[in-house]
Amino acid sequence: MAATTDSAVTNGRARTSANSIVVAGDRTASRRTAHRHSKSVRTLKFALPIAALATLAIFAGSIFKSVGFGPAIPNLNMPQIIADNLKMQNPHYEGFNADGGHYWVRAKTAQQDLKSLSDIRLEGITGEMIDAKKQKTNLVATRGLFDNTANILELYDSIKVTGDGGLDAQLTRATVKTKEGIITSDQPSTVSMGAGRITSNQLTIRQKTKEYTFLDTVRTHMKPKSPEPETKEQSAVKPMPFGKPGEPVDVASNRLDIDDGKKTALFSGSVVATQAGATLRSPQLSVIYDGAVAPQGQEAQGDAGGTKIKQILAKDSVVLEQSSGETATSRTAAFDTASNTAVLEGDVVLTQGDDKKAVGDRADYDQASQTMVLTGPVVVTQGNNVLKGRRLVFNRTTNKLQLTAPGSTGAGAGRISAHFVRPATKAPASEPAEEPSTDGIPFGPTFKTDPNAPYDVLADRLDVDDAAKAAVFTGNVVAAQGDMTIRSVELTAYYTGSAGLATAADGTKKGAASLTHLKARKKVTVVSKDGRTATGDWADIDIKTNVATLGGAVVLTQGKNVVRGTKLLIDMNTGETTIKTEPTASSAGAAMISSSEGDGGGEIVKADRPSAIFYPGQILGSKKAKAAASAAVKELDGWQARTTP
Fold first, then answer.
1. Shortest CA distance to 384 belongs to which of 421, 424, 439?
2. How many CA atoms lie within 13 A of 405 on its CB side?
3. Residues 581, 556 contacting (CB under 8 angstroms)
4. Structure confidence at residue 435 (pLDDT)
5. Which CATH superfamily is domain 188-229+236-352 in?
6. In angstroms, rounded to a whole number, what is the distance separating the alpha carbons of residues 453 and 424?
7. What are phi and psi of 38, to 5 degrees?
8. d(Cα 164, Cα 194) in Å, to the nearest integer?
């Protein structure tokens, strides 16, 4: 039995005072809480394994479905991301270069490539590249692909590239490196500039340095600025062989490099250039121009877009063909349009047709004076005729030619030579008459020579006037044919055909020069092979008949025999000569030959007209010729003889 004093129970717990004693309590609530907890634990012991088994069953079912087992599970309609749904409208890309230039690219639409996040497809493209000098290059294309990591823009279809001053390129495909300012294309392109039009299969434009490279089947049409209107005198002047000012130039090549900074255009690879009917062929051709290929601040319209070609230089085996048929070959050829001059150097060969050729080391053309100067060891051939010297000057307007042989530094002047082949002739079939002539004194065959032998001439200078058909040799002239030699101060050769180096004014071609006759002047001397000599003031030689006539103060010397007269006839076919004196205003009075002209033992013959000294046994020729000479001496009026020859 328990007893409590002043006790109280609160919420099942006994509360006592300090001086109370608890002997029993109510624990009903605690037992209820413990009962609920035990029930929850028992429930989880069954629920957790069951949930794990259900999850495993669902996973297994998915695997079986993927391999074809079990009933199909319906697909879920999941939303997909499509590139077309990610188009940007009016995108704008912009960047700056290290040199102070900048660029921008705009498009109507842009699409991000989900496979390559750096590539953006563009439609309706426009762009602009501005270099450090504020010069612009504009781009237009139908579509393209922009790599925003490498700053490379690929353009396709209907591409147009324009620049300040007239650059206009039509392309089908191009690659633009926006930061470097480089445009390339490996497809056919057409580029129009102030200088003309260029087509090629490959193209590179370096916008910063203004350099252009064209490759593969390059065709260039250069349009120079029009020169000032020509006067009548200028229009009558024949143009240079190439590089005529104001005339367009068309060039075909494998490659073209233009440097607009240095103002040069370099053509290479089987270059063929044509201008005003002339064609120039060379492995390499460079052009120096004035102005810009695409001038700044101007549109490529009319003459405003043209450039002035200053120089054209061809290298390595140059061939120049004129519409007239004239051809020139050399190692190099330079044409200066500013001074209207041209220079061909190295193994120069000038030809006209099949029978005219001039060879030298250098040829200088001057359009103003219409002259061509050929220097070096000069050789001119015209058919079988040959001229040799060191300096040939030819005037294209007058068709006059001059050949000299100036000496090199420290050396004296040389000599020019000519070799003329005359048309073949037949020698006379019968001996000439040997009857004495009352008109002169006949002699035997003293100057016989081969009528078909060529003439070889040496002189200090040769001047040819093709209009007058005359070639004048001057300066200690020596002309030889077979066994006969003619010496004089001046010798004029007349010919048919043409001795010039150009076509006739009417464009027709004429054959090589063919001699018709010769005229020697001033101190003329005719010498036979064995030393027989005839001198006079002049001499005429008829090439067709092969007869020479000496006139003036004629002196014929045969050994010790000396005959004087005013005319000497020489038949070079037979060698027969006849000396005579024709009445002249100064022939009055007797002529006297002193014995001092011989050795003192000759016979002195005096007459009013001819005069001679004969030595017995030294009259040359046959017996009939000697007899004829003696008879002629006896029968001529005014002759006196102390002894008979």
1. 421
2. 22
3. no
4. 43
5. Lipopolysaccharide (LPS) transport protein A like domain (2.60.450.10)
6. 9
7. -65, -40
8. 11
Query: Which residue has tokens 């079939």?
Result: 429
DSSP string of 308-367, one letter each residue = EEEEEEEEEEEEEE-TTSEEEEEEEEEEETTTTEEEEEEEEEEEETTTEEEEEEEEEEET
E strand or H helix at 486: strand 484-496
CATH architecture of the region 85-179:
Sandwich (2.60)
* Token pair listed for 81: 């991301």
DSSP code, position 84: G
Predicted pLDDT of residue 90 = 77
Distances (CA, A) of 173 to 8, 158, 189, 199, 569: 105, 8, 9, 14, 88
pLDDT at 224: 66
Instruction: Give the closest residue to 139 by CA, choosing from 197, 207, 198.
Output: 207
Q: For residue 231, report the phi and psi dihedrals to the nearest 5 degrees.
A: -80, 170
For residues 418 and 456, the answer to whether their CB atoms sit within 8 Å is yes
- In the chain, the largest separation of any two C-alpha atoms, in whole Å, equals 224
C-alpha Rg value of the chain to the nearest Å:
56
- CA-to-CA distance for 393 and 385, rounded, in angstroms? 18
Query: What are the distances in angstroms from CA 254 to CA 193, 202, 219, 223?
Result: 19, 11, 9, 20
Separation between Cα atoms, residue 288 and residue 278, nearest integer Å: 20
**How far is it, in rounded angstroms, from Cα 486 to Cα 535?**
9
Cα–Cα dist 420/387, whole Å: 9
CA torsion 166-171-174-179 (nearest 10°) is 10
pTM of the shown model: 0.69
Separation between Cα atoms, residue 182 and residue 176, nearest integer Å: 6
Give percent helix, percent strand, percent coil of the chain, each to the nearest 5. 10, 50, 40
Distance separating alpha carbons of residues 349 and 346, to the nearest angstrom: 9
Q: Return all residues near 258 (Cβ < 8 A) that are at least 6 apart.
A: 211, 212, 213, 264, 265, 266, 293
- Quick check: 634 and 641 in contact, CB under 8 A? yes
CA distance 44 to 222: 98
Q: Which of 483, 462, 484 is nearest to 473 (CA)?
A: 462
Residues of the chain with CATH 2.60.450.10: 85-179, 188-229+236-352, 416-635
Residue 352, amino acid: Q
Phi and psi at residue 537, to the nearest 5°: -85, -25
Question: What pLDDT, on a 0 to 100 scale, did the predictor assign at position 516?
Answer: 86
Cα–Cα dist 521/524, whole Å: 6
- The C-alpha atoms of residue 625 and residue 436 are separated, in whole angstroms, by 8
275 membership: H or E segment, kind and range? strand 264-275
CB-CB contact of 20 with 7 (8 Å)? yes
Q: What is the mean pLDDT of each run of 10 residues along the chain (645 residues)?
A: 39 43 55 73 70 69 58 52 61 76 83 75 85 80 86 86 77 86 89 82 87 93 64 51 74 92 90 89 90 47 58 91 88 88 93 87 90 93 90 90 83 85 58 45 64 89 91 93 89 83 54 81 87 88 87 82 83 79 49 40 43 52 53 43 34
Residues in the chain: 645
Provide the residue type at 208 as one letter: K
- Can you tell me the distance from the alpha carbon of 443 to that of 464, in angstroms, rounded to the nearest whole number? 37
The topology under which CATH files domain 416-635 is lipopolysaccharide transport protein A fold (2.60.450)
Tokens describing residue 516 = 């018709």
Contact 164, 158 (CB under 8 A): no
